[in-house]
Amino acid sequence: MRQVITFLFVFSLQAIFSQNTFQNAFNKSERPFRENLSIDFKDKDGNEASLPISILKGKTKGPVFTIVAGVHGFEYPPIVAVQAILKEIDLQQLKGTLIVVPIANTASFYARTPFISPLDKKNLNNVFPGKEDGTITEQIGHFITSNIIPASEVFLDVHSGDAPEDLIPFVCFYNNTKNPKQTALAKELSEKSGFQYVVSYPYTLSDTDAAKYTFKQAVQDGKTALSIECGKLGNVQEENVNLIKKGIYNMLDTMNMYQNGTGPHPNIIYRNNQSYVRSSTKGIFYSNFKAGDLVKKNELVGYTTDEFGNVLEEYVAPKNGIILYKLTTPPINVGNTVMCISSNTDNNEYPTFDKTTNMTTNSRKELCRLYLERYAEKDLAGVEAIFAENIILRDWKIRVEGKKKALEETKKNFEAAESVEIEILEMHEDQNTVAAELKITVNKTEELYVVDVITFNSEGLINSIRAYLGRGDKENK
Ligand SMILES: [Zn+2]
């Protein structure tokens, strides 16, 4: 009994001491100011870990912006990007305060374990709000919840694809309608981050639900919080490190804290509807797809075999969409996320184009799909947003030049049809052109087989559509 009392006493002293170390440094009024802390944790099983924290106070007062890397210690681009930020930030130019956690899960980092801490086998991104007297990972979660989140105005958690994961870079936030102001800022920071894919998740937690995820905890605590996912496969890719740095600098610039932004991506693509394909077997995983590929509903996207090569399970896409991230290495276990397929259910959000900047070249198919979605929805404003001024529209009946005339023709088609359904049969892409083989059903009865050849200008706007009428395999029409 005496031992227990002594233990509890030592334990709670340690917790109070850790809190004070952070609070003391954070509360200092000196500016500019920089302090590096290492908070120590010890659990009942004898596991020990430390949490590094850097507090950077700029010359002038301003918002408190927290950047966390290494919640997953095998996700290196965020860790390397944050190292560069720590080195580059000039406190004379900084307005406000940065709280930087360079590696949240140091145990996982040094032991090179994906997802979990090797000490207690827990995933830090699954323990929030954490526990003061819990295992080592739960204690770190609790410290972040009770000290770092309350001190923050904006909380950014940076991740990448872990050791087995392929991933396309994106920025994401929760569409939390309970706190519209914080959510609007999270959206704005996402849009100005420079990332092309802006992903939002629905927010359905009640006030008493455990947030589990790091940045979701900050959302639940009423903060503006968001996350970057950039990098893949347990490697450091320089271009992904640079994207993360750019994202952070753009966010700080948007907050008016540091003038080193480069502006938003010229062609933002919004995604707000994620579907997850999960494994129900253990075995060897195969897939010909990669992150960023577009998939069609019911398309076979991968399969699992046993150790003798017998197919145990096949995976099909539950809907049309883009693969945000996916499992890429062969080992697969029950309950693994095989892939996340993302789409957009909103009709009122369009890609935005910055005509002064060139866009990247890898999203023509995505833009073509957007155009066809807008067309099927008879959404003239949506179509207008992706037509170039000098567009040439040509089909088997007409040929018009210029945006005004092209929109007039499009409008005529919309008015002539009660309903339009477009099924994409095939889609091919080269640098500036997408060819799409389409089955278009007008008014539920009239079926047209059409090939659209769509070209894009350097701003990602459609500058020509050439449509060719053909026929289907079984049609006599
Ligand atoms: Zn992660």
How would you explain this protein's 3D organization?
With 477 residues, this protein is α+β, with helices and mostly antiparallel strands. It has 3 domains: 2-269, 3-Layer(aba) Sandwich (Aminopeptidase); 272-343, RNA polymerase II/Efflux pump adaptor protein, barrel-sandwich hybrid domain (OB fold (Dihydrolipoamide Acetyltransferase, E2P), Beta Barrel), CATH 2.40.50.100; 364-469, Nuclear Transport Factor 2, Chain: A. Helices cover 27% and strands 33% of the residues. The protein has helices at residues 2-27, 76-88, 106-111, 136-151, 180-191, 214-220, 238-254, 364-376, 380-384, 403-416, and strands spanning 33-42, 48-57, 60-69, 95-101, 154-159, 165-167, 170-175, 197-202, 224-229, 269-271, 273-278, 283-286, 294-295, 300-305, 311-316, 321-327, 331-332, 337-343, 387-394, 399-401, 420-429, 433-442, 446-456, 462-469. The strands form 4 sheets. A 9-stranded mixed sheet has the order 1-2-4-3-5-9-7-8-10, sandwiched between helices. Strand 23 (446-456) and strand 24 (462-469) form a beta hairpin. Zinc ion is lined by residues 72, 75, 125, 159, 162.
